[in-house]
Specification:
It is built from three helices and four strands. It is an alpha+beta fold. The chain has one domain. The protein is globular.
């Protein structure tokens, strides 16, 4: 199991963007940690137009969000602690977990 530590100072939850120019949502933090460059105001990984294992799908040269991504995007309606706990349950099958660290 791989653990991604997310500094609370970088996390904005809820957020309608992966990256708002200053902070990332949960999914944005994961992608940033994996080395992807996220431009401000992108709403989902498919906006990157890249094949990102487990997070995007490519079909006939078009990019779509995976079922995992769609489930994670729905966590925006939960309080932060609950969203992180549910994200970890969703990430279990791909041997990934997130942990928030630090303080604001």
């Amino acid at each position: 199991m791989t653990t991604i530590e997310i500094p609370l100072i970088l996390l904005r939850h809820p957020s309608i963007y992966l990256f708002d120019g200053e902070q990332y949502d949960i999914l944005g933090c994961i992608l940033f940690h994996k080395g992807y460059t996220i431009r401000p105001k992108m709403k989902s990984p498919a906006d990157l137009k890249l094949l990102i294992p487990n997070f995007t799908l490519n079909y006939r040269k078009a990019f779509f969000d995976s079922p995992l991504t769609l489930s994670m995007l729905q966590l925006d309606f939960l309080p932060q602690k609950e969203a992180v706990a549910r994200a970890n349950k969703l990430l279990e099958p791909i041997m990934l977990q997130i942990k928030t660290v630090g303080h604001r």
